[in-house]
Design a protein that fits this description.
By secondary structure, the chain is an alpha+beta fold. The protein is built from five helices and 13 strands. The protein has one domain: q2cbj1_9rhob like domain (Jelly Rolls, Sandwich). 17% of the residues lie in helices and 32% in strands. The strands form three sheets. It has an eight-stranded mixed β-sheet with strand order 1-2-10-6-13-5-3-4. Strands 9-8-11 form a three-stranded antiparallel β-sheet, with no helix packed on it.
Length: 249
Amino acid sequence: MTIQISPPFITNQTLAVALKTTGYAVLHPASAFELLSCTSQDAAAWLPSWNDLPPDAYLKDGGHYRRRRHSCFVVNGLDVQQTSHRAHWQPLEYNALHGGMQRMFEPMSAHVAQSPAWPTLLSKLGDLCTALKPETTKWFVEAHQFRIDTTDGIGRPTPEGAHRDGVDFVAVLLVQRHGIKGGETRVFEVNGPAGQRFTMTEPWTLLLLDDERVIHESTPIQPLDAESSSMSYRDTLVLTFRAKAFQGD
């Protein structure tokens, strides 16, 4: 039997304090929708786009378990602008497996990136980041749509292991889980022994991370039914917020 630990949900009223105190916070979907000023109907309209993610051609472990799209935005208060399409780049310091590579993924579909709720979502998260770091109002945002499946028998949400992303803040939205076990989220202090483990199971649960203070990972997933492994997957939306510039600029 697989034991799942429920996320330590907090309220929006204690969100800023939690991030300042522990470096992470988890919101129930209802609280997430309230924070992001969007609705479950908005989220449902984006859902089909996860069925149209191209394979990740850059996996160095030889796997075929990850599909993704990637787009970039600049957020300054209510002003949200999508940039010209650009590669995703991280230094080896933050990604020992795939760092140092110019990885050019297919962009997010206009159905998502140009929907009315999308800039509102980014703007609200930008406001939260600014509340935590008042000296910054302009945020350089990378948006990643991921599908991790069990085509290979096992899927690895974080093949690089426990890591930081090299940004200021990270938001991870669980979009859906289908026919899997595993996928436990683990968050640890960068410079201390404290840590937390839990499994996000409810669609649109939101995990927020102060990337300077914590490292994070998700454990591999496996199919509940070995005969339907190709239909077992975990979908997420990962948004990174960085002051001053995109990584690599």
